[in-house]
Write a structure and sequence with these properties.
By secondary structure, the protein is of the alpha+beta class. It has one domain. The chain contains three helices and three strands, in the order βαββαα. Strands 1-2-3 form a three-stranded mixed beta sheet. Strand 2 and strand 3 form a beta hairpin. The radius of gyration is 16 Å and the shape is globular. The two termini are 16 Å apart.
Length: 92
């Protein structure tokens, strides 16, 4: 998977859903995109989601999801399976 494929832009998804013409490529296609939470570039993470003025990597997303699930003290069996699968794949 190329570094470019690792970045998902919400703006691009929104534009393609509206069937607008593709925008001209700008410099972010060549330059690394950094997570606004942990500071890692897209070259060091599984995926990166770009939003308006903010980026979040897949690892930070899962930490946030895990926090929200564990806030209820006991995750459901299905939620725990998803968390276990995600973290085990990252450690390989």
């Amino acid at each position: 998977m190329s570094d470019k494929e690792k970045v998902v832009s919400l703006k691009q998804a929104r534009n393609s859903a509206k069937k607008t013409e593709p925008e001209a490529k700008d410099n972010h296609d060549r330059e690394p995109v950094y997570c606004s939470f942990c500071g890692r570039p897209n070259t060091q993470v599984v995926k990166m989601v770009q939003g308006p003025g903010v980026n979040i990597c897949s690892e930070c997303t899962m930490i946030a999801v895990q926090y929200l699930i564990l806030e209820d003290k006991m995750p459901s069996g299905e939620a725990q399976k998803i968390l276990d699968i995600f973290w085990s794949k990252l450690s390989k």
